[in-house]
Fold:
Amino acid sequence: MSSPSRFHGKSRPPSTKPHDIVEEEEGLLSGVSVEGKESNDTRRSWSRGRIVGTAVFFIGLLISGAFVRTLLRGPVVPSEYSLWHKGGELLSNGTHEFKRTVLIVSIDGLRADYLDRGLTPNLLRISENGLRAKSMKPVFPTLTFPNHWALMTGLHAESHGIVANNFWDPKSKTTFYYNRIESCWNPDWWFGEPMWETAEKAGLLTANLMWPGPPKTTSGASSTYFVPWKDHVPLSEKLEQIINWIDLPIELRPQLVMAYEPSLDQAGHATGPMSARVNKTLAQVDDFAKDLQSALHARNLTDIVDIVFVSDHGMTDTSDPELVYMDDILHDEGLEMLEHVDGWPAMGLRFRESANVSHYLNMLLNASDANPEKFDVYTHETMPQRYHFSHSERIAPLYVVPKIGYVLTTKAEGDTGMSKGNHGYDNDELSMHAMFIAHGPFSTDVKALHHSGKKPADHHWESTESNTYIMERFPNVEIYNLVIKLLGIDQFAAPNNGTVGFWDRYL
Ligand SMILES: [Zn+2]
Structure:
C-alpha cells in the first residue's frame, strides 16, 4: 500500500486513529469547542444572566403562588416514598416546594474498578448511603457517543443509530463525525427518544449541561435549558450551573438535569488507566461529587433529588500493544478496494462495489482463525447476539474487532499517535465496564424495604458490612427506564431495550 489515505477511505479522515484521540484530548468532542459558535436556531440556550434575570421575575410569582396554595390547601408535607413516585406531587425541603428531581452525571471513562483505588472516598460515601453496582455494562462498541446515547434512550447502538464515533451511512451517503457540528447537531443521525424528550412530553422542564448528543431531535423536541459542549470548563463552574438550576423558582426549575464531564477520559487516553494523571483527575471528580452532594444536603434535598452518577465505558492500557497489520491480511490490493473504514479501535469495513467481498472476508477469517487471540471477524449474520450490533445498515457489513492488547493498523500508520489508554473493545471485558452509583429517595426506599423484609434481596444485590448495597452488574440500557420511573412519568416512556420490570425488583 502506498498511501495511508487509501486505506482510510472516504469515511475515515487521514490519521483517524491518532486524530480522534487527539481531538478528544483537545476537547473537540462535539464540534463546539469555542464559545459563540452556537447556531441561531430556536434552541433555548440560557445564559446565567438570563436565568438570574428571569428568576427575579418569577420569585415574585413563586411567593404569591405559594401563599395562595397555602391558603387553599394548608401547608405542604412530604409524601411517603414507599412506592414508586406517581409524579406531579409537591414536596418540601422545609422552606420551598419541590417536585421529584433527578440529576444524572456522566464522568466519561470512569472504569468501574477505579472506585476500588482508595482515591474516591466521597463517591464511596455516597454509595454507602445509597447504592452502587459492581459495574454497569456499556453497549458495543464501548465508545463515548454510542454509550451516551444508549444512556439517554435505553437503546442499543443498532437501534439508536450512533454505531461508532465516526461511520458511513449508506442511506444518506454521508459520514457521521462526532466532532463536527454539521453531524452531531443534525437530529437525523440520532434515533430513539432521549429521556429529556420524554420528560418534556410529560410536561417537565429539563436541563442539559454538555451531555453528548444533539440539542434537538427529529420531532423538534429540545431540553428547556441547554449548555453546549466546551472543553476545559472547571468543575466548579459546572457545579455552579447545576446549583443555579436547582435554585430556580419552581416554575422555572428543571426536574431532570443531565451533566457531562470529560477530563477523566482525556487523562485515560493521554497517560493510560494506571497513570498518576488518571489518579489525580479521579480525585478531582470525586471532590466534585462531594461538592454536589454537599450542595444538595445544604438545601435539605437529599430526600427529594435522586442523584445518579454513571460513566459511559472503562479504559484499558494500550501503551505497549501488539500491532496487527491489515496489509499482511488483505494485501495492497485488498486495501485498495476499501471504500470506507468505520470506527476505532474496531474496524467496520465497506468494500467497493466492484470488490469480491467474500474473497476478502475469507482472507480475514483465515487470519482470525490462525490468530484467534488477536481479533475476531464478523458479518451481520455472525455478529455475537450479545452485541446487539447487526440490525442497522449503518453497521458496516464486515467488522474486525481486536482483542484487548492488540491494535489494528497498517504498515504506513504503524503506531503513530497511539494513545496510552483506549476503549471500544468487547463490552464483556470488565476493563470496559462503567460505574453506577445512586443516592436519594430511591436508594433510601430500596434499603428500607430490604430491611423491613418486604422485598427480599434475591440474587440482585448484596449488602456489605458497611451497609453498602452492591447491585449485580447490569446493562446501561436500563438507565432510561430508571430515570423515567424516578420522575414518575412511566406512562410517557418510549419503547426501549431496557428490561420490563427490571427496577421493580428493587421497589
Ligand atoms: Zn467516553
About this structure: Residues 119 and 283 are 6 Å apart (CA to CA). The domain at 318-422 is CATH 3.30.1360.180 (Gyrase A; domain 2).
